Automatic annotation (TrEMBL):
The keyword Disulfide bond belongs to this UniProt entry's keyword annotation: no
Organism whose genome encodes this protein: uncultured Solirubrobacterales bacterium
Residue ranges of every copy of the Oxidoreductase molybdopterin-binding domain listed in the record: 42-217
Superkingdom per UniProt: Bacteria
Biased composition, class Basic and acidic residues, residue ranges: 363-379
Record's keyword terms, sorted: Metal-binding, Molybdenum, Oxidoreductase
Gene Ontology MF terms: heme binding; molybdenum ion binding; molybdopterin cofactor binding; sulfite oxidase activity
Any one GO BP annotation for this protein: sulfur compound metabolic process
Cofactor: Mo-molybdopterin
InterPro entries: Ig_E-set, MoCF_OxRdtse_dimer, Mopterin_OxRdtase_euk, OxRdtase_Mopterin-bd_dom, OxRdtase_Mopterin-bd_sf
UniProt-recorded name of the protein: Sulfite oxidase
Length: 379
């Protein structure tokens, strides 16, 4: 098992290692198991000697800190939170039929997962360093060096001050009650609930309080929403919009894409998520391309920062080809129907309706008609 992962992950790249689980591995699990949690890397996984690892806190602070793992754990209270991570490239595959997204992996709907994280509050560490009032942003650097920028750079990001001092933002050393796995950022990673996954810096080594957002490639040039006509290889730092809070999104986890299903009742289930202070308030499912909708049941949610699982039963007719779903958030934003209007050069934030195509089993349909005549008229 590579990096402790299931062998049936869809691997988008070996080096750097990038992989997502099949839909079935996420279906109906409020917390994603460690062996099924997606992995997104922009460089090689760094080798870190825990005893030598130090976390440096500097920039606009009264006193710089340098903390070993033991000091971090001893000095700061441990807080636990279930939170969903979602890559900005999640569901990119839906863009590819609109227009190619060169140089980016065709992530399906499972570049997302929910874990129970625990660690120190970033707010507590920043307070201990005495962060200044004029520090509008907090920047992070990881230990891994990515060759995506030229010249190569460590992976980095920043978040605005209010999110940095919010109670939900953690420096996590544990995931689902176990020591944070190496592939997920051990010994310590940021967890920035409700923000795109790219802000949750793994293998974090340096935290800098500053007046401006990070000038790291992954904040200033990548993970930005560019205009459709922009050339992603020739953009100026700061062009486009830095992605932060996750837009309302959902996908279907069961049935699987391409599944053969019996006509008649079919259970449909999936996840929905809306970032930052928004919550998922409704999920609708349709089998007639959105002419009519049925509201799904919203199921258990581990915390306000976790995805909402949902499920419903639809009636599959012999002519059914697609099951579609859309979520609504607490600001009344709904997922748009088509990815065509959302396409952007880096292929981020595809939050178009979820759609899986199914093949109704026609032999089952015939059997069904003989046992309950008229079923198709009433469906
Ligand atoms: N140091 C570092 N942190 C990182 C990354 C990375 O490549 N290096 N990838 C980011 C991206 S794009 C995502 S979506 C999440 C994925 O976290 P995971 O691999 O634990 O699922 O980590 C983020 N943190
Ligand atoms: Mo990501």
């Amino acid at each position: 098992m590579r990096w402790g992962k299931r062998t049936d992950l869809v691997v988008h790249g070996e080096d750097p290692f990038n992989a997502e689980p099949p839909r079935a591995a996420l279906a109906d699990e409020t917390v994603t198991s460690l062996d099924a949690f997606y992995v997104r890397n922009h460089g090689p996984i760094p080798e870190i000697d825990r005893s030598l690892w130090r976390l440096r806190v500097d920039g606009l602070v009264d006193g710089e800190l340098e903390l070993s793992l033991e000091q971090l754990k001893a000095r700061f209270a441990e807080h636990e939170l279930a939170a969903t991570l979602q890559c900005a490239g999640n569901r990119r595959i839906g863009f590819l039929s609109v227009r190619d997204v060169p140089g980016e992996a065709p992530w399906g709907p499972c570049a997302t997962g929910t874990a129970v994280w625990s660690g120190a509050r970033l707010a507590d560490v920043l307070a201990a360093a005495g962060m200044h009032d004029d520090a509008e942003h907090v920047a992070f650097l990881g230990a891994d060096v990515s060759e995506e920028p030229d010249p190569a750079q460590p992976f980095g990001a920043s978040i605005p001050r209010p999110k940095a001092i919010a109670a939900e933002t953690l420096l996590a050393w544990s995931m689902n009650g176990e020591a944070l796995p190496v592939v997920h950022g051990a010994p310590v990673r940021l967890v920035v609930p409700g923000y795109i996954g790219a802000r949750s810096v793994k293998w974090v080594e340096r935290i800098t309080a500053q007046s401006e957002p990070s000038d790291n490639f992954f904040q200033a040039e990548s993970y930005r929403l560019l205009a459709a006509e922009a050339d992603p290889d020739a953009i100026a730092p700061g062009e486009g919009v830095a992605l932060g809070a996750v837009a309302v999104n959902a996908d279907i986890l069961s049935p699987d894409e391409g599944a053969t299903v019996a006509t008649g009742p079919l259970r449909v289930s999936g996840y929905a998520f809306a970032g930052d202070d928004r919550g998922v308030v409704r999920v609708d499912v349709s089998t007639d391309g959105g002419r009519s909708w049925r509201q799904a049941d919203l199921l258990d949610q581990r915390s306000p920062w976790s995805w909402r699982l949902w499920a419903t039963e639809v009636d599959v007719a012999a002519e059914t080809t697609d099951v579609v779903a859309r979520a609504w958030d607490s600001a009344a934003a709904a997922q748009p129907e088509s990815a065509a209007h959302l396409w952007n050069p880096k292929g981020y934030v595809n939050n178009a309706w979820a759609r899986v195509s199914v093949s109704p089993d026609r032999s089952a349909a015939r059997a069904d008609r003989t046992t309950s005549p008229g079923r198709r008229d009433t469906a």
